[in-house]
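Hello again, I could really use a second opinion on something today. Take your time with it, there's no hurry, and the full record follows here:

___
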Amino acid sequence: MSVTVDIKELNERIQQESAFVDLISMEMNKVIVGQKHLIESLMICLLSNGHVLLEGVPGLAKTLAINTLANTIDAKFSRIQFTPDLLPADLIGTMIYSQKQETFLVKKGPIFSNFILADEINRSPAKVQSALLEAMQERQVTIGEQSYKLDDPFMVLATQNPIEQEGTYPLPEAQLDRFMLKVIITYPKKEEEQLIVRQNLSKIFPIANAVLKTKDIIKARDVVKDVYMDEKIERYILDIVFATRFPQDYNLEKFKSMINYGASPRASIYLASAAKAFAFIKRRGYVIPEDIRAVCHDVLRHRIGLTYEAEAENITTTDIINEILNTVEVP
């Protein structure tokens, strides 16, 4: 089935519809110094209806970035601090007995918001993780015998400390796979840090203003789906994902013993969605191979399982993704 797409007309439409991207970036840049990649990643997830996992040592403005994004959109926001003693009921809510009405009433938890900041998500045990898992995947939660739909848009923005840190539990693979992107946050540059210090010591700390409503986000998501993706680009995505499963088919035999399991079909879906959102952010109506390469690390880094052999040789998922991108033929 061949569909003729007027790229020029689509491009002009996307340029008009994506004007708000600059507004959000401007508001976020008031508060967040540097971290361009972090802001872009948050926008990609917002436009693709995905969830994002941010990893980095404490103090790198992960929480501040998520707070600021929520401020730029007139939406409900909840912050949940994950601790080892957190219970699923603290997250989703519980049934409370009302003596006055002589019946059980539902008390909804903080998960009933548009934006959920799951702070230090890997400090809580498996039971809480599984409660969050249903919310992320099914966009609903179950309290007692009743299921409740979550608001739209619903987005989990989770932060985690590096696994080597004290008191952290590694997230189960099934839960990691639910996150569209895993973004690694690094230290700011020296001049950026100087600005951060100045900003924090000034009398008035900048605040981001609300420039969008939730209905604008839902509308923009529909537009992002219209971004044109050629069949050659689709095949490029599949080649990258299949190279993580069958490296020997792509002249990457050396990784056969390094990879325990490759990326799931969810990786292919998210690579395509993220590339479309990235093209939209760049005010373009069509996807180019550079868009795939730009989002590839964040989409794949938490979806490739390494063997003990890879860990013994200090091979990381980043090394494998780099090698795949250098080997797989670009359309």
